[in-house]
Design a protein that fits this description.
Shape: globular
Helix content: 40-55%
Number of helices: 5
Number of strands: 4
Distance between the termini: 51 Å
Oligomer: single chain
Radius of gyration: 18 Å
Structural class: mainly alpha
Amino acid sequence: AGFAAANRRVAVFSFYRYHPGIQFSSEFWYDVCMEGALQSMKQQETMLLRSCRLLVHEVCHLFGVDHCIWHACCMNGSGHLQEDFSQPMHLCPVDLRKLQLLCGFDILDRYRKLADFFDRHHLDEDQQWVRRRIEFIEDAKKDAATTAT
């Protein structure tokens, strides 16, 4: 879970409840047990994916981006872990544009760096998603250049 206060320029993150082996009591919210360490590669990937998603969400709050109500997006609010875990890793076009305006990065360059990160950490679904975005943007640029001439 995380919390960010953009007006105070501070954020707090906890990855504890994102561990794939943690089990919560259905009776007492504070009663938890841990089923071992991160042993398999799949568990490590799950922990990394959940942690990255949380960090992106809270850092975007630090930049002043609120919860998204327009698309399935990393900036959607969530009321429980299942909802949190089902959200995509990526920003929707609306929130990506907000962040781009705030930070001034090149979207295509950002996607290329994300593709490298996902490839390095064997997050294949996310890497493929980013590659499709790169192809879409490059094709749109080619079409615009063809139309302009």
